[in-house]
């Protein structure tokens, strides 16, 4: 054995030791004085954690795993770890503009070892902010329009089925239809009113008819699902809309509830059951994939294009559905599907969730570019000619982003539109 | 200080407006009703005055289609203290004279110090409710107001003029104000608060009889405007379009 290592001086311990008047007796690593952390504001963390739903905010141990996956941080300075640190050092989240930037995309929750859940925390704090009258103006307009007209676009409730007049196939409206249907199709606000959303609704109507599906819509009896308003802090508005929609769902006989949008899927599967709705729902991609054998021979026309697919946060991470949309896209002849780096479980966010849809200008002041613009740049970098989507928030968001980033050549199409194109040529 | 806001429930312009079969008015069965947006401003201004100078806000309106409760509950959620609705066997399309008379009769019982109402409403663009209320109540009226402050029984009013000019008035209470815009944008009333209030609030009711048109003015015919011409889009590149424009100008003898 090396002579230099076996000859270690014994550690000399004293019963008591007083050095320069300070008693340093005890284990070698003891704290001599209690550290006073006077510069921290734990009460501002408690203010969040004390709210029902806000509890997990206090569990953050600052590991920062959430930061590289936060879509807002990618175009700004954000993420749960940073919000916790801000609260710890004097920021009242209830009053801070940072409160409105989270899109509740849940990518942080996916990697968080402490299960700090912004999908619960954000609506809890925002609800208080709304009650205190701290609502960004743009968002207030969306709330008011939803309360007045049943949709955030401020369009008349009576006009909700006006899009069906443009349809070249029948779209039965339950009230007039007067008989049970196999599929109750909840169309949603954007597919009912937004010009580009209507394109997807018309495509869906043609596909359902081609497949011989016995379906109907609620039309003027349908109101916005309200889930995104809930996540933006308006739980009362959500409850009001949910009570209405549940009553309408229960008014008619149907077997399967199919929705156009992932946010509606979340509403009907996770939130409406808390208010007594006891039936399930399918996103249209999940529904159509069940009919793939029948659908495939109808997809006769090639779409020769490089296509990439944007996973909607509320279909992917929130409901674990990654394959149905891809299976539908792969069924289209000629179409080459390429994946972006941020896909599936790590999919990027379009910026529309959690109220972001109605906070575009507000968010602009806190980010270097829109999340939708960041995503469009990624799609272009992967050589996509078409960005395929299946959430009604996304078509308009990405089309605008393609224009604003000078990428007009990138087409943004709903999977419904692509299927319809392949069917009709 | 008793602050009163007179409001009006009107057809929503978000709906497709249709004329009834007789062609005499809107088909009121085919439209939803909303609060007149200028009245929303008046409610906000009333609550701001109350917050700054004290007092109580009473909101009063004619319940034309028996759906005014929601509007009144919202006003209470925003800070109004009392809600009153004028009820009866009513049909939509009540003219401003009748509206003003009923509102004035109700307000006479309220010992009002300041009455705020929207400067006009989108249904008739009449702008007469405020002035007629003032006439019935024998009070001064100032319209197109964009700010109200009250101190020592004097109201300081800011009135908007054309060309970006602003007038500042001092008027002794009581008076009637036609509100163009409140000092701040109308606040948001959370739905949970409105729903809470809806469970407990008591809305006072005043009965009236609809005894026909208030003025000797009858609406005889209503129709959508007939389009008499339309723009003609000239296709082609800039040079071709320019040539066509010149040809048209020459053809019409304008050159």
Question: How would you sum up this structure in a few lines?
Answer:
Chain A is an alpha/beta fold. Chain A has 19 helices and 10 strands. In chain A, α9 packs across α19 and α17 crosses α18.
Describe this structure in words.
The complex is a heterodimer of chains A (425) and B (255). Chain A is an alpha/beta fold and 425 residues long. Chain A folds into 3 domains: 42-131, no CATH class; 137-289, no CATH class; 296-424, Rossmann fold (3-Layer(aba) Sandwich). Chain A has 19 helices and 10 strands. Chain A is elongated, with a radius of gyration of 26 Å. With 255 residues, chain B is of the alpha/beta class. Helices cover 29% and strands 25% of the residues of chain B. Chain B has 6 helices and 11 strands. In chain B, strands 9-8-7-10-6-1-4-5-11 form a 9-stranded mixed beta sheet, with helices on both faces. A two-stranded antiparallel sheet of chain B has the order 2-3. The longest helix of chain B has 17 residues, at 37-53. The termini of chain B are far apart. Classes of the chains: A alpha/beta (425), B alpha/beta (255). The interface between A and B is medium-sized, with 24 and 17 residues.
Question: Rg of chain B to the nearest angstrom?
Answer: 23 Å
Low-confidence stretches of chain A: none
CATH evolutionary superfamily of chain B: HUPs
What's the SSE pattern of chain B? EEEHEHEHEHEEEEHEH
Number of helices of chain A: 19
Secondary structure tally: strands of chain A: 10
Strand content of chain B: 25-35%
Oligomer: heterodimer
The amount of helix of chain A comes to 25-40%
Spatial strand order of the main sheet of chain A: 4-3-5-6
**Overall radius of gyration of chain A:** 26 Å
Q: What is the level-2 CATH architecture name of chain B?
A: 3-Layer(aba) Sandwich
Q: Quick one: overall form of chain B? A: globular
Overall mean pLDDT of chain A stands at: 94
Low-confidence spans of chain B: none
**Whole-number tally of structural domains of chain B:** 1
Major β-sheet profile of chain B: 9 strands, mixed
Ends of chain A: how far apart?
84 Å
């Amino acid at each position: 054995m090396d002579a230099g290592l076996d000859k270690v001086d014994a550690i000399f311990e004293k019963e008591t030791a007083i050095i320069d008047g300070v008693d340093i007796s005890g284990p070698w690593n003891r704290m001599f004085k209690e550290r006073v952390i006077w510069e921290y504001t734990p009460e501002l963390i408690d203010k969040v954690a004390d709210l029902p739903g806000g509890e997990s905010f206090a569990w953050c141990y600052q590991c920062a795993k959430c930061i590289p996956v936060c879509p807002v941080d990618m175009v700004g300075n954000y993420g749960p770890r940073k919000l916790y640190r801000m609260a710890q050092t004097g920021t009242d989240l209830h009053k801070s503009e940072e409160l409105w930037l989270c899109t509740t995309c849940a990518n942080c929750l996916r990697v968080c070892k402490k299960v700090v859940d912004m999908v619960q925390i954000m609506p809890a704090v925002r609800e208080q902010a709304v009650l205190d009258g701290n609502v960004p103006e743009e968002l207030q307009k969306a709330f008011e329009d939803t309360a007045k007209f049943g949709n955030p676009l401020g369009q008349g409730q009576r006009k909700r089925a006006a899009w069906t007049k443009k349809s070249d196939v029948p779209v039965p409206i339950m009230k007039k239809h007067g008989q049970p249907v196999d599929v109750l199709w909840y169309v949603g606000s954007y597919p009912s009113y937004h010009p580009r959303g209507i394109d997807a609704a018309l495509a869906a109507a043609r596909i359902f008819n081609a497949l011989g599906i016995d379906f109907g819509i609620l039309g003027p009896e349908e109101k916005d699902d309200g889930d995104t308003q809930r996540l933006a802090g308006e739980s009362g508005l959500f409850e009001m809309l949910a009570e209405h929609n549940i009553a309408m769902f229960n008014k008619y006989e149907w077997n399967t509830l199919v929705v156009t949008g992932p946010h509606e899927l979340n509403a009907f599967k996770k939130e409406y059951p808390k208010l007594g709705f006891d039936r399930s729902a399918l996103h249209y991609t999940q529904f159509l994939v069940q009919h793939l054998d029948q659908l495939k021979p109808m997809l006769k026309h090639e779409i020769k294009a490089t296509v990439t697919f944007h996973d909607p946060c509320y279909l992917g991470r929130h409901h674990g559905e990654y394959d149905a949309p891809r299976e539908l896209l792969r069924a289209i002849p000629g179409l080459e599907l390429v994946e972006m780096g941020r896909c599936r479980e790590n999919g990027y966010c379009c910026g529309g969730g959690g109220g972001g849809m109605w906070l575009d200008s507000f968010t602009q002041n806190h980010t270097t570019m829109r999340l939708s613009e960041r995503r469009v740049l990624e799609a272009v970098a992967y050589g996509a000619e078409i960005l395929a989507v299946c959430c009604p928030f996304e078509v308009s968001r990405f089309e605008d982003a393609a224009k604003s980033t000078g990428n007009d050549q990138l087409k943004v199409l709903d999977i419904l539109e692509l299927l319809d194109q392949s069917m009709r040529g | 200080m008793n602050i009163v806001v007179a409001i009006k429930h009107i057809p929503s312009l978000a709906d497709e407006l249709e004329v009834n079969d007789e062609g005499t008015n809107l088909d009121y069965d085919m439209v939803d009703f909303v609060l007149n947006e200028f009245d929303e401003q008046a409610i906000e201004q009333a609550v701001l005055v109350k917050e700054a100078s004290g007092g109580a806000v009473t909101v009063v309106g004619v319940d034309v289609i028996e759906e005014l409760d929601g509007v009144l509950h919202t006003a209470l959620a925003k800070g109004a203290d009392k809600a009153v609705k004028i009820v009866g066997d009513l049909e939509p399309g009540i003219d401003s004279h009748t509206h003003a008379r009923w509102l004035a009769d109700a307000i006479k019982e309220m010992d009002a110090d300041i009455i705020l109402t929207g400067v006009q409403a989108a249904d008739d663009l009449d702008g007469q409710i405020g002035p007629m209320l003032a006439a019935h109540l024998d009070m001064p009226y100032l319209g197109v107001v964009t700010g109200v402050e009250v101190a020592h029984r004097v109201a300081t009013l800011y009135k908007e003029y054309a060309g970006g000019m602003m007038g500042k008035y001092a008027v002794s209470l009581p008076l009637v104000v036609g509100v163009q815009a409140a000092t701040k944008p109308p606040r948001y009333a959370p739905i949970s608060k409105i729903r809470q209030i809806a469970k407990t609030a008591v809305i006072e009711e005043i009965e009236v009889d609809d005894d026909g048109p208030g003025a000797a003015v009858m609406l005889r015919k209503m129709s959508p405007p007939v389009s008499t011409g339309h723009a003609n889009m000239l296709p082609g590149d800039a040079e071709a379009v320019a040539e066509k424009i010149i040809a048209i100008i020459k053809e019409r003898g304008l050159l």
